[in-house]
Design goal:
With 269 residues, the protein is of the alpha/beta class. The chain has a domain of 179 residues: TIM Barrel (Alpha-Beta Barrel), CATH 3.20.20. The protein has 12 helices and 9 strands. Strand 4, helix 7 and strand 5 form a beta-alpha-beta unit. The longest helix is centred in the N-terminal third of the chain and has 14 residues.
Amino acid sequence: MTKLDQALQTISSQAEKQPAIMAHVVLGYPTLADSIELACRMEEAGVGIVELQIPFTDPMADGPTIMMANEVALENGVRTADCMKAMETIATKSSLPILFMTYLNLAYCYSSKTKGLESFCRDAAAAGAQGLIIPDISPEEKADGYWDYCAAYNLAAIPLVSPISSPSRLKTISANSSGGFVYCVSTLGTTGSVASFGSELVEYLGRVRGEFTQPLAVGFGISSKKQVAMLKGQAEIAIVGSATINKMKDVSNKAKVGKALDFLSALAS
């Protein structure tokens, strides 16, 4: 059983209290050292899972806030090789399960010496990653062996669904995925969009629940303890990303990590 599997068992058993927090960190923002420190200290803030984003030039699923963080990270010179080293450092220092989030082109072009996608999965697992979130890989596609590589290297390939995923598509995604959890996009748009927590979200998550056996994680637009509490009974995990970066933007560099941890701690309490 992997570290992620063990964490998801614990999270599912405690879901009646409130959803666990999965925190999104852009490696390299505000600096690489700060992002590593932030990820290493997530456990003290009560976070349950950490998602490390490898900065990319065109993060199409991300809104303005995370796009800005990606741009800063790239301007800081952070590249995929740096992120692999960062993952190794964080995985060594933290007992939390840690995932990589990135996009297919970056993973596909990871290595010119050997097949990039397989090399990426192999090296991510060796560095300590428990799973991958790649929004632009469709479960219906073979994606040059992505699913097989994840299975071979014991990585959870996290599927994404959205409010417009049809019943037939949910069935297809479910049939082609196993383990880990299901990333449920809360609303149409990009990260940081204002999430709606009305009856439509409840109905949507109910449809997803009917097709999957894995825990549900809800992301895009979660920014308050009230929103996290509203997911109680609907999802096991609340994903927080843009809101954390927004908290860091308004304080001095020395205070950014502490500000982020205080915010996450308040959400998780």
